[in-house]
Write a structure and sequence with these properties.
Order of helices and strands: EEHEEHEHEEHEHE
Largest sheet: 6 strands, parallel
Radius of gyration: 18 Å
CATH topology of the largest domain: Rossmann fold
Shape: globular
CATH architecture of the largest domain: 3-Layer(aba) Sandwich
CATH superfamily of the largest domain: Nucleotide-binding domain of ferredoxin-NADP reductase (FNR) module
Bound molecules: flavin-adenine dinucleotide
Number of strands: 9
Structural class: alpha/beta
Length: about 200
């Protein structure tokens, strides 16, 4: 699910609202977001946000809900801050003490963009989720020795050979979601077994 966050200027008529996926698990008195500061209209407000600023929140919205009964095996594909709904889902599964057969591919541009790494590793281990991270812009000296490059059909098949048996959930920027929907269909996955949240 996502929330709408709105900035309203104090002495101006300026108003700008954007959608952000909720990263913590319901029920909670708090909302947690993973926001990529891209210096656009809304995120540039957050760049300079300070304690005491007021942002208006309305929530929850959306159809990107995880149903543990929608399949027996799952694949989560996260692009950048598209990790947010999956953090929410995994936290809920962990809290409910449920068991899940799930693989996750998480794509970031740089190793230092990996979000919540310790919690992700801990939950993956505890729940038995096979999580693989790929870095799309590796650089000499960044210390990254793991998977490199964009997620594509061959990377999916290498990490998740039984992909055709899985219900897939994708979240991230439009180009990521579109490319991965196409990749899954090219691997023989039924479009009905693919759920996606696209940011754009
Ligand atoms: C359902 C949903 C859930 C979402 N969840 C999240 C989330 O969890 N985390 C998250 O980070 N985002 C999320 N988004 C995206 C988010 O809503 C915003 O679109 C995003 O934060 C950018 O907003 P903005 O106002 O800062 O950028 P905008 O001003 O709207 O700019 C949009 C585009 O223009 C480009 N751009 C803007 N300014 C410049 C500039 N000066 N020079 C060059 N290019 C520029 C940006 O790179 C961007 O591609 C979600 C979107 C949807 C629809």
């Amino acid at each position: 699910m996502f929330a709408m966050l709105e900035y309203r200027g104090v002495n101006t008529k300026e108003s700008v609202a954007r959608a952000f996926s909720i990263a913590n698990a319901p029920p909670s008195d708090e909302l947690e977001f993973l926001i990529s500061l891209i210096h656009g209209r809304f995120t540039s407000k957050l760049d300079t946000a300070k304690v005491g600023d007021v942002y208006y929140v309305s929530a929850p919205y959306g159809q990107f809900k995880f149903d543990i009964n929608s399949g027996s095996k799952f694949l989560f594909l996260a692009g950048g801050t598209g990790l947010a709904p999956f953090m929410s889902m995994l936290r809920l599964i962990e809290r409910n003490g449920q068991k899940i057969d799930c693989a996750m591919l998480y794509s970031v541009r740089y190793p230092d963009e990996i979000i919540d790494k310790e919690e992700l590793d801990r939950m993956s281990q505890r729940l038995g989720v096979k999580t693989s991270v790929t870095v799309t812009r590796p650089a000499d000296g960044d210390g990254w020795s793991g998977e490199k490059g964009h997620v594509d059909s061959s990377m999916i098949l290498r990490h998740v050979p039984d992909v055709k048996e899985r219900t897939s959930y994708i979240c991230g920027p439009p180009a990521f979601v579109k490319a991965l929907k196409d990749a899954l269909v090219s691997l023989g996955v039924s479009p009905n077994a693919v759920h996606a949240e696209m940011w754009g």
